[in-house]
Design a protein that fits this description.
Layout lengths: L13 E5 L4 H11 L3 E6 L19 H6 L3 E6 L4 H12 L3 E4 L5 H5 L3 H7 L4 E6 L14 H7 L19 H24 L3 E6 H8 L1 H8 L18 E5 L5 E5 L3 H11 L14 H6 L1 H12 L4 H10 L3 E4 L3 H5 L2 H5 L3 E4 L6 E4 L23 H7 L4 H9 L3 E2 L1 H4 L6
Parallel strand pairs: 1-2, 1-4, 2-3, 4-5, 5-6
Antiparallel strand pairs: 3-12, 7-8, 8-9, 10-11
Helix pairs in contact: 1-7, 7-8
Length: 411
C-alpha cells in the first residue's frame, strides 16, 4: 500500500461473531471486506450448519463460501464453561459482537447485547433475530422463506396464479445489511461519545421495510399490487419478450415520450405514438394484452442482437434475461475487473469484489474462507493459554483446532 493510499475504513476493528446460516455471516463478511478482523465462533461438531448446505463450491457449501471469506474460525463449545470463558475473553478485547442464535439462547449464555454492553460500555453488540425480542412471534422459528411469507413478499412475487418466494434469501440479506449499517452507525456514534451500545435487528422488520411500496400503496387507499410475473402492475409495456432466436429481452417504457421513441424507432409503427389506445401509460395498461402483442410481435421478428441494438439506439431501458451462467460471464463485470480469487480449503475460487468501492483506498482484502477451527490454536495462544491448557480443552472436545478441523492454519 502506497503512502498516499488510505487504509481500509475498519482496519484495527475486531469483531467477534457467534453466527450461523446467512444473516449474521453476511453482515460480518461486509465488515471483513472493509478491513475488520472477524473472529467466527463455531461449534466443534460441524461448525456453522451452513457448511453442510451443499457441496457445490468445489466441495464446499456455496452459502458458506459466499458469506465467510476473510474470517478466522475458532471452534469452541459454548455449553462448556471453559469454552464460554474463551469467548467472553475474546469479547472483552473486541469492538463489535454479533450473534444470531435461536431466540433466548444468547441471553442464557450471557452473550446477549444488553448483558455484554453493560459489562463493556465501548462494545457495539448486535442481536439478530427472526421476529424481535418480544411479541407473540418472538420464539417462532424464522427461516428465510418463512419470513418472506410473513412479510408479504411472496404475496407480491410470482404470477397471478402462483405466488413464489424470491430466488435469493431476501430476508437474510435484508437483516444482514441492516446489521452491517447498524454497526457502522454505532461505531460512528462511539467515535463521538465513547460509548458503544446494543443494536437490535429482526428479519421481519428488515423485510417489512423493503415492502414499502406495496405497503403504502395498499394501506393508504390503493389496492395491494397484483402479482404480474415479470410485468409491472401499473406500467406497460414492461415485460420480457421473445426474439426470433429465442432470447428473452426485458424492456421498460417509463413515460409517453419513451413510447413514442419505441413506436417510431423500434416497432417501426409511428402511428402508435398518437393512437388513443396506446398513447398514454394509462391506455397502454388498460390495453395491456394488445400492447404486449404489438411489442412482442415486433421483437419476435428480430434477433436478440438486432432488438438490443434498436432499443439502445432509441434510449429504451432494456436487459437480457440472463441465467446464472450468463452473470458469471457478464461482460460488464469483466470489463470493470470485478472478479478475484479467494483462497479456500479446497483451493482458489472466483468471487466478486464487494459492491462498496472506495477509490484511493486500500483494495478489499478478499481474505480466505476458513476451515473449521483453523484459527483456534493461534487465538488461544494470543489469549495467553498454555499448550497444556489447550491440550486439555482439545482432549475434552471443548475446542477443535486446525488439524481436527480439516485445514491448514493460515493465520
Amino acid at each position: 500500500m502506497s503512502s498516499s493510499t488510505q487504509p481500509l475504513p475498519l482496519d484495527g476493528v475486531t469483531v467477534v461473531a457467534v453466527e450461523q446460516a446467512v444473516a449474521a455471516p453476511f453482515a460480518t463478511r461486509q465488515l471483513a471486506d472493509l478491513g475488520a478482523r472477524v473472529v467466527k465462533i463455531e461449534r466443534p461438531d460441524g461448525g456453522d450448519f451452513a457448511r453442510g448446505y451443499d457441496t457445490a463450491a468445489g466441495g464446499l457449501a456455496s452459502h458458506f463460501v459466499w458469506c465467510n471469506r476473510g474470517k478466522e474460525s475458532v471452534a469452541v463449545d459454548l455449553k462448556d464453561p471453559r469454552g464460554l470463558d474463551v469467548v467472553l475473553r475474546l469479547v472483552a478485547g473486541a469492538d463489535v459482537f454479533v450473534q444470531n442464535l435461536a431466540q433466548g439462547a444468547a441471553a442464557r449464555l450471557g452473550l446477549d447485547a444488553a448483558s455484554l454492553c453493560a459489562a463493556h460500555p465501548r462494545l457495539v453488540a448486535v442481536d439478530i433475530s427472526g421476529y424481535g425480542a418480544d411479541g407473540p412471534y418472538a420464539h417462532k422459528r424464522a427461516y428465510d422463506m418463512l419470513v418472506q411469507c410473513e412479510a408479504g413478499l411472496v404475496s407480491v412475487t410470482g404470477t397471478p396464479e402462483q405466488p413464489v418466494k424470491a430466488g435469493v434469501p431476501a430476508a437474510d440479506i435484508a437483516a444482514g445489511m441492516y446489521a452491517f449499517s447498524g454497526v457502522l452507525a454505532a461505531l460512528l456514534r462511539r467515535a463521538t461519545t465513547g460509548l458503544g451500545g446494543p443494536v437490535e435487528i429482526s428479519m421481519l422488520d428488515s423485510l417489512a421495510e423493503w415492502m414499502g411500496h406495496p405497503l403504502h400503496h395498499g394501506m393508504h387507499g390503493g389496492e395491494p399490487p397484483v402479482r404480474t410475473g415479470l410485468a409491472h402492475a401499473v406500467i406497460a409495456p414492461y415485460d420480457a419478450y421473445a426474439t426470433a432466436d429465442g432470447e428473452q429481452l426485458l424492456l421498460s417504457v417509463q413515460n409517453d415520450r419513451e413510447w413514442r421513441r419505441l413506436a417510431e424507432q423500434v416497432l417501426e409503427r409511428p402511428g402508435l405514438a398518437d393512437d388513443p389506445d396506446f398513447a398514454t401509460n394509462t391506455s397502454r395498461t388498460a390495453n395491456r394484452e394488445r400492447t404486449d402483442a404489438v411489442v412482442g410481435g415486433a421483437l419476435g421478428g428480430l434477433t436478440g442482437g438486432e432488438a438490443l441494438a434498436r432499443l439502445d439506439a432509441a434510449g429504451i431501458a432494456c436487459a437480457r434475461l440472463n441465467t446464472v451462467a450468463d452473470v458469471a460471464a457478464h461482460p460488464q463485470l469483466a470489463a470493470r475487473d470485478r472478479w478475484r480469487e479467494v483462497a479456500t480449503p479446497v483451493g482458489a475460487l472466483r468471487a466478486l469484489l464487494p459492491p462498496i468501492t472506495l477509490p484511493g483506498g486500500a483494495p478489499a482484502p478478499m481474505g480466505a474462507v476458513p476451515a473449521l477451527g483453523e484459527h483456534t490454536d493461534a487465538t488461544l495462544r494470543a489469549l495467553g493459554m498454555t499448550e497444556g491448557q489447550t491440550a486439555a480443552l482439545r482432549r475434552d472436545g471443548v475446542i477443535v483446532d486446525a488439524a481436527q478441523g480439516g485445514g491448514p492454519d493460515r493465520s
